[in-house]
Amino acid sequence: MLAAKVDMKAVQETLGHANITTTSNTYTLVYPDVAAAAADAAAAIVLRAR
């Protein structure tokens, strides 16, 4: 779901996790492309600020 850009809160609720930290810690490490997308987004923000 995260690879399909489903919101983390929606993933948490769908999977029945008690808190979003469980979802985040478990599944974001599995998807390197999610981490890469986050890094790209952060880089774009930094580059715009210059």
What does this structure look like?
- The chain has helices spanning 8-15, 20-27, 32-49.
- The radius of gyration is 13 Å and the shape is elongated.
- The mean pLDDT is 88.
- Helix content is 68%, strand content 0%.
- The protein is mainly alpha-helical.
- It has one domain (8-49).
Topology diagram in text:
Elements: H1 8-15, H2 20-27, H3 32-49
Helix pairs in contact: 1-2
In short:
The chain has helices at residues 8-15, 20-27, 32-49.
Mean pLDDT over the full residue set: 88
Tell me the series of helices and strands, N- to C-terminal.
HHH
Q: Which secondary-structure class do the elements indicate? A: mainly alpha
Distance between the termini: 34 Å
| Coarse shape | elongated
Number of discrete helical segments? 3
Instruction: Count all strands and give the number.
Output: 0
Major sheet characteristics: none
Q: Tell me the β content.
A: under 5%
Share in helix = 55-70%
The number of domains is 1
Rg from alpha-carbon coordinates: 13 Å
Low-confidence stretches: none
Question: Which features would summarize this protein structure in a list?
Answer:
50 residues, mainly alpha, 3 helices, 68% helix, 0% strand, elongated
